[in-house]
Amino acid sequence: MTYVAMKCGICFQPPSIILIYKDDSKEKTRQRIMPVRNFSKFSDCGLAAEQLKNNPRHKAYLEGVSLRQLQKLYSLLKGHLGGESLAESLEKFRQEETIDPEEDMNKLDDKELTKRKNIMDELFEKNRKKKDDPDFVYDIEVEFPQDEQLESCGWDVESGEEI
User: Is the pTM of this model over 0.90?
Assistant: First the structure.
């Protein structure tokens, strides 16, 4: 049987993930409630999302749901268990998922750096133009405006000195 995920959400009381899916064999829309057990405000959202997605009871239903979406739902639940409002939890998740261009990535630990790289890779793939896209153009030439005079750098100026 194949299932097509249509919507995925979270219920705070009792803690559960709710999936609305379409059963292709019966052409019916159904709802599946997956209870969240052994999860606290100190739990790891990524690990919990992986465990749910790989659970044999739910695996067939969650094929169409991305791991990132499940992580977001667990993050919202974690914020709720920690006493945050839904708006605060959403804002906190949005801040974690955006990259600050001024941030020094050299000072991050390996786990955070991997997380930032995954976010950048996902953003790149989302914005990437593929050959199959309708607005794909093979050889684009763009001329950038030259409003002010370009500064010359010291390293590219030829000097009379021999190396």
Answer: no
Distance of CA 8 to the CA centre of its chain: 15
What's the rounded Cα separation, in Å, for the pair 68 and 24?
25
* Element housing 127 (H / E): helix 110-127
- Kindly report the backbone phi and psi dihedral angles of residue 41, in degrees, each rounded to the nearest multiple of 5, phi listed first: -70, -5
Q: Catalogue the E-assigned strands of the chain.
A: 3-11, 16-23, 28-35
Ranges of residues in the chain with a pLDDT under 70 are 1, 148-154, 156-163
Distance, C-alpha 162 to centroid of its chain: 53
- 8 A C-beta contact, residue 103 and residue 63: no
Instruction: Compute and round to an integer the Cα radius of gyration of the chain.
Output: 24
11 exposed, middle or buried (CB, 10 Å; 0-12, 13-18, 19+)? middle
| Per-residue confidence (pLDDT) for residue 159, from 0 to 100 | 58
Residue 25 phi, psi dihedral angles, 5° rounding: -70, -30
Measure the N-to-C terminal CA separation of the chain; round to a whole number of Å. 72
CA 44-49-54 angle, to 5 degrees, is: 130
